[in-house]
Design brief:
This protein is an alpha/beta fold and 201 residues long. It has one domain: Metallo-dependent phosphatases (Purple Acid Phosphatase, chain A, domain 2). It has helices spanning 13-26, 44-53, 68-77, 109-124, 155-163; strands spanning 2-6, 30-33, 58-60, 81-83, 88-91, 94-99, 130-135, 146-147, 150-151, 168-170, 181-184, 187-190, 197-200. It has a six-stranded mixed β-sheet with strand order 5-6-7-10-12-11. β8 and β9 form a beta hairpin. The termini are close together. The mean pLDDT is 97.
Length: 201
């Protein structure tokens, strides 16, 4: 499977254009977005419409600039938009797990609850599949959450990754770390940035 991952386009028309160009050039099977497609939902209908027009499935979580309700609403209207917050989705031999929003907390009790009660069960029944976790917030203590003042990512997400069979994490939120990659044990962690990154599984 070939994925085009991106994050934090914040309504940028040049970023959307670059995504469209990469779709044409690389012919990915699907797109994955780690949230913040808008600036506090300004012009969000137009953004969803543009993403939908790409005519590829867009697996997406919301960012801290958007609400869950908005994404539920428009994922029902636009057939190519698939909202996976707090749920799993299997496509071919790949399982996607999604958790959007946030980005500012070091611990997330809601994520911990979902991970314990839902994600672990889904993973247990998907041992033969590649597993991709899509979050808006970066996990703690990687190159993706490192700023001048130190690490500011989420420890709850990191703990889950360390204890689970996750092949890849796609996240965003910190613009300073667009394009950076790292590893947590055997798990690759990527912030693909607004212009997107092609990932082969």
């Amino acid at each position: 499977m070939r994925i085009l991952a991106f994050t934090d386009i914040h309504g940028s028309l040049p970023a959307l254009k670059r995504i469209e160009q990469k779709v044409k050039a690389n012919k990915p099977d699907l797109l994955v977005c780690a949230g913040d497609i808008s600036i506090f939902e300004h012009g969000i209908v137009k953004i969803f419409r543009q993403l939908n027009k790409i005519s590829k499935q867009v697996i997406i979580v919301h960012g801290n600039h958007e609400s869950i309700g908005t994404f539920i609403k428009f994922s029902k209207i636009f057939k190519n938009i698939v909202f996976i917050h707090k749920r799993g989705l299997t496509i071919d031999n790949v399982l996607f797990l999604g958790y959007g929003g946030g980005g500012f907390s070091v611990m997330d009790k809601d994520f911990e609850k979902i991970a314990q009660e839902r994600f672990k069960k889904i993973i247990k029944s998907s041992q033969d599949k590649k597993i991709i976790l899509v979050t808006h917030a970066p996990p703690y203590k990687t190159m993706l959450d490192k700023l001048v003042g130190g690490h500011c990512g989420n420890k709850s997400i990191r703990n889950f990754i360390e204890k689970s069979k996750i092949d890849l994490v796609i996240c965003g939120h910190l613009h300073e770390n667009f394009g950076k990659e790292d590893k947590i044990k055997n798990t690759k962690v990527i912030n693909p940035g607004p212009f997107g990154k092609v990932i082969k599984l």
